[in-house]
């Protein structure tokens, strides 16, 4: 009876922790951290070119490498979070690295001796006469940049998983709340991004980069303070101690070693941890029939040890990761399309009328358009669409994760098609007004490109959070942060492949994008090509999604807790 009461007390203690109260601190950190990151993502090219005297090509390459690396480094944060540190400690440590990075950039922007004399007021043709940044000045810049990249990568891996940990996906009451968490996580991310691309961009343009970086530094500092304030409320999943990557390698090595071993017909004969050997938060994943050759790693032989015998759960962890890879690959192209909206669409905006009731919209602030769409759509999705869909499907999330990702991929294809039509109209306006070679703004409002941005904003809402939720829900208990990091890698590879796609298309097409004059280029053809390729990519995704088998978990640990509750109540 005493053991039963202890189990009930533990369960009630867990229920007092977590939930929406704990998630509020996660939202606060995400909003503040993303405010700083996105503000710099859309405007750092200006800083590199105008204040560090980089060439336009080097400025663009430096930013692209920074963005791609930041998302790739989430793998480091995910690995550490699952292996060595709790998700909370990972967030604090990596955010502190990010804080140091912004501090370095603030100091460099403030003290003239840490950067070259600015040539921003000179003509582009005179850039070659400007003093280049010294090796020491470049070293300070890159140190600051990649401390930010490492820091934000770790936060992006651990923070969504920390927030989702506050809800029990196996609890009928908390499962819908966990789905809502990912929606409101995106909402906080969006609010931070809106403030970043408007207020902070305005500060950097009108008050100087020293003030802009100072605000970013303060924002990250408060992000750390907020996440620490909620420490007593968090449900913390302790790291497993063993690396998920090592466990996967063990399965592959043992399966290869046992390639001639016969797999028993009875699945019960495969090795699994017994009930009495289980520890808290350990889950047993049911065996699936896919990739049966890996089951040889769980066949009991005369040899013991992790490099000679694996559990069925360990084998299924490996199968899950293999099944996830085609899903993540099929979403990379969508992020390649996103990169075009952040480059070519900005160039389109620079040729159009950017006046809004007497206020001139800065070029780097144009991405606020899809963010505003997301700001409106996310609450509607969470409060209206999901409850309505839940009535018909019975699924806590309204629709499955893979369905949500698929809707986003369809919308991204539509966005590219619309972008092609908008560009066709923009070019026709230039021809009609004899402004093909003019540098003046065309008599066409910049908000025409709001159509393609708005549709892509909706696509982002479905796909990005669908991926995060899918990878968190489907991964094993010991791989939550790493799986979240893998989801972010889709964005990283989208940035890296963007340049390759542009160069290949430009070469094969004979120069659709060869001119420096958009009015003479064929950007509309490029957008339509991306739309067609997006449709083909969606077909590939449908094949992958129909082939995917969702994870099934034997939750014997919860059953024992429920039995204990019944005994105490009796």
From TrEMBL:
<dbReference type="GO" id="GO:0016020">
    <property type="term" value="C:membrane"/>
</dbReference>
<feature type="transmembrane region" description="Helical">
    <location>
        <begin position="485"/>
        <end position="505"/>
    </location>
</feature>
<feature type="transmembrane region" description="Helical">
    <location>
        <begin position="181"/>
        <end position="203"/>
    </location>
</feature>
<keyword id="KW-1133">Transmembrane helix</keyword>
<dbReference type="Pfam" id="PF00854">
    <property type="entry name" value="PTR2"/>
</dbReference>
<feature type="transmembrane region" description="Helical">
    <location>
        <begin position="402"/>
        <end position="422"/>
    </location>
</feature>
<feature type="transmembrane region" description="Helical">
    <location>
        <begin position="525"/>
        <end position="548"/>
    </location>
</feature>
<keyword id="KW-0472">Membrane</keyword>
<keyword id="KW-0812">Transmembrane</keyword>
<feature type="transmembrane region" description="Helical">
    <location>
        <begin position="63"/>
        <end position="81"/>
    </location>
</feature>
<protein>
    <recommendedName>
        <fullName>Protein NRT1/ PTR FAMILY 4.5</fullName>
    </recommendedName>
</protein>
<feature type="transmembrane region" description="Helical">
    <location>
        <begin position="442"/>
        <end position="473"/>
    </location>
</feature>
<feature type="transmembrane region" description="Helical">
    <location>
        <begin position="209"/>
        <end position="230"/>
    </location>
</feature>
<feature type="transmembrane region" description="Helical">
    <location>
        <begin position="87"/>
        <end position="105"/>
    </location>
</feature>
<feature type="transmembrane region" description="Helical">
    <location>
        <begin position="320"/>
        <end position="341"/>
    </location>
</feature>
<feature type="transmembrane region" description="Helical">
    <location>
        <begin position="361"/>
        <end position="381"/>
    </location>
</feature>
<dbReference type="InterPro" id="IPR036259">
    <property type="entry name" value="MFS_trans_sf"/>
</dbReference>
<dbReference type="InterPro" id="IPR000109">
    <property type="entry name" value="POT_fam"/>
</dbReference>
<comment type="similarity">
    <text>Belongs to the major facilitator superfamily. Proton-dependent oligopeptide transporter (POT/PTR) (TC 2.A.17) family.</text>
</comment>
<dbReference type="GO" id="GO:0022857">
    <property type="term" value="F:transmembrane transporter activity"/>
</dbReference>
